[in-house]
Amino acid sequence: MAARKQTVRKKESTPLKQTPADGASTGPVKRVADEANKGRPKGDGVERTSNGFPIAGIGASAGGLEALEELFDNMPPEPGIAFVVVTHQHPGHTSMLPELLRRKTDMIVVEASEGARLEPNHVYVGPPGGQMAILDGKLHRMETDKKEAPRLPIDYFFRSLATDQRERAICVILSGTGTDGTLGLKAIKGESGMAMVQQPQSAKYAGMPSSAIATGVADYVLPPASMPQQLVAYVKGAYLTPGAVSAEIPAVYAEPLQKIFALLRIRTGNDFSVYKTNTIRRRIERRMNVHQIKKPSDYVRYLHENPHEIDILFKELLISVTNFFRDPEAWEALRPALQELVTSRAENQTLRVWVPGCATGEEAYSMAIALKEAMDKAGRHLLVQIFGTDLDAEAVETARIGQYPDGIAVDVSPQRLERCFLREDGVYRVRKEIREMVVFAPQNVIKHPPFTKLDIISCRNLLIYLNAEVQKKLLPVFHYALKPGGVLFLGPSETVGGFSELFDVTDKHWKIFTRKKDVGIRTIPELPVHHVAGEELMPAAQLPTPAIKEAHVATQIQRTLLKRFAPATVVVTDRGDIVFIHGRTGAYLEPSPGEPRNNVLDMAREGLQIEMSAAMRECTRTGADVNRENIRVRTNGSFVYVNLTVSKIKEPESVRGLLLITFRPSLSAAPAPARRRPKKGKKGSDDHRVAALERELQHTKESHQTTLEELETSNEELKSANEELQSINEELQSANEELETSKEEMQSLNEELTTVNAELQSKVEELSQANDDMQNLLNSTDIATVFLDNELNIKRFTRQAKELVMLRETDVGRPISELASNLHDNALIANCSAVLKTLGSRESEVRTKDGSWYLMRIMPYRTAENVIDGLVLTFVDIHRLKDAQKDLSRMSKVFMTSVDPIIIVDLEDKIADLNDEALRTYGFSRAQVLGKSILSIVPGARQKQVSDWLARSRRGELIKGVEDVFSDKTGEESSRVMALRLLTDENGEPDAIALRTRHAGE
User: Fold this and answer.
1) In terms of CB atoms within 10 Å, which end of the chain has fewer, N or C?
2) Domains in the chain, start-ordered, CATH in brackets?
3) Is 509 a catalytic residue?
4) Distance between CA atoms of 290 and 428, rounded to whole angstroms?
5) Is the pLDDT at 519 greater than 60, yes or no?
6) Residue 273 appears among annotated catalytic residues
7) In terms of DSSP H, where are the helices of 345-405?
8) Catalytic residue among 88, 140, 175, 602
9) Quick one: DSSP state of residue 689?
10) What's the average model confidence in pLDDT over 963-978?
């Protein structure tokens, strides 16, 4: 029976009428999570701090940008979820992640700030460096010790999210290296939250997804594009929707629950009906929500059709959320009791500890570390045996490996990490001296017998998941298993209840008890060894009866055949530990005196041990069957002869390597009569006994000699191999330490570079877009442009430049001097060289061979750092301007050579220009009249009349043949006949007035 470390939950309506699950805190994430649990009662009725909507933490590292963009690109604009993105980024790095994600989603994307209250349909991006935690739906930036290693922001946030949001917590693990996020995922699953992991095949770096999947508790393993649909469907399911109880559920909910119990018992052999049904129902409802199944009866049908779902549900019910030194204050309170045990035990005694419900081994290893520290402090080194047991065989196998992700550094001090763990390939492995203190094995504490003569039982947070009846049966068992004065270490939400007469209280708060010495041994209460009330749980007609009946009949037939025809048989390991016994073996085996042992060699009767040991060794070495005949075995005061056969089992895979020992009575040798006191003159009987003893002695000598030879050979080989391995191991250890240090540094650097590279890649795409925009802009201006480097080699050009210089795409990099040109100007190269020397711009008009004119500008190319990096040549088409200049030149000559005085007056009656005849007529120089009013050369009495004519002309009226008086430079007045015409610009707008005069009478 595994310990399931789990936090209590709020009462909430669900398809199976869920009520709060009992449990204890999962070991909060430092400071913030401690505050989250402070003041909350443990037990039923605990209120959640949820904001009424789910919060999804998204963890990503190297290669995570692509996955994040793909995830949010497919996310609906209003999923009803708040997202918090946590990545690995260097503290000094300026993150562009919020800007990049805004382009992929219609949700509001902001950088997480201190104290920000989360809102649905928002994306909060964690800032670079530091770590984030959540408390009561608000984000907090947590500064950590820079020396603390490793820095695991994803684990840190996930564990905080699990404590704060519980079943509304969702974690999504995307591409990344290392194991960050694995422990946080387990914490969220322990709170009945949901876990989603990127499919490793779709991840750029599969380290983080693979580590998360290896826990075996991920709900969904999907590519990022498929995650949004499943995520939204899960959130909208009944599991997270308050008041989603159907009116028909109260009448029928018990029946499907009992059917599920029966299916679990048939499939796994474990009866969950002794668990508190509140927790079981809630776990079942979560699995129903994962598959979008609304009715419990439909889920029962789904279990029938998909047996693998029963295995997943079994794992779901056994989710163990534990960590090293969980509840550090409890371990501090236990320290004096451990110190007393270490100092009070004799040197030749063994400290025996049992950790039922050890899950993945953290609790058992924590106990081993604590005992080692107590022994070191006391200066004593006792033999320690810690038995870690659990119902989950996979969790036990994980515990045996003794390998844990980087995240344990949050719970284990750096000093303990250094003393008790080895860093290998980005994970921590328990050191050999600690590992050898612990033995792990699968065990159901309800069905299987307990360990005995124990000094400590650490059963934390197991009893809270069992109903009251089972708890009442287990506590006396624990009392029986402990030595007088032994320590019982329970979880903070557990107690000895009505058995206070069996235990003394050592620490009431942290539930540390001591077995009373003056209480006699009680009779062990009857446990539900194997609850088989299948008819009570599920009617026979509703069970999958055909398969069960066929399997039952086949099993009974096999047992009958084995009983009648198979000889007495024992299945053992290569060391002799008994695995299975068939038939009557009492004539050959008997229990050994003293402490019960389960070894076939210890149980062999006189005369059988040597032969059986030699046969087992030979079979193990060669793999072939080994026969020993006519072995004389002493049985109940007489002797029998037996034929012994030892075979190695090769099939099936699950039992490969075990040895099969069969005993057959020998038919060729008659059993010797029972020993009698020899009578005088009966030398025949003595001779027979002497002969038998001589044969036995000879056989013993031969076996002994063979054993010695084998031992000497093995010792020599092992000694030689050990010396070589020791030398190699020292070299490898030194090299491994150096490589490990380099690997950690490179891994950290690689993750940061990958993140920066992804952001730079996005920036390159932006620059590429900007370059295309610039290229289109240059082409749209219709200006020929050529970019040269400092060696006057071509770097880039627009398509218009091909008309002036014979350019192709392959000419990039060639000197411009090697290319043919359509320009008459041969000073192009000289001008370019001059600009590079003087760094001043040059501008000139150049003509092509077909007669077109261009304004050529040569300017230095300046970079953002104000460095000259070549030249820019632009050619503006001024052909139309040159034609206009030519026309203007002609008109100017006509204007200037006219025989009549002509004055150009602007719209403000000021003289804008006048021809040579006007200057000669009125005697003024050009400088004297330009810009002055035309009325300045008109006598005062006539100025109003001239002003009226100018106004009429400005309105477009053509005025001809009018006469007025003008005065010259000397003041002499003369009468003149005038013609006034309005001049307009290219848009037809009034521009000036042309006033032509001549002498009256001409």
Assistant:
1) C
2) 32-244 (3.40.50.180), 328-515 (3.40.50.150), 561-665 (3.30.450.20), 781-881 (3.30.450.20), 898-999 (3.30.450.20)
3) no
4) 33
5) no
6) no
7) 362-378, 393-401
8) 88
9) H
10) 72
